[in-house]
Amino acid sequence: AHQHTSRYLALAEAHPPEQFSVVRGHVMWMLGRSGKGHRCTFDHLGPYTAPQLRMALCEASSVRELEAIVRATLGAADFFTC
Question: 4-31, pLDDT tens digit by residue?
Answer without folding.
Answer: 888 999 999 999 999 999 999 999 999 9
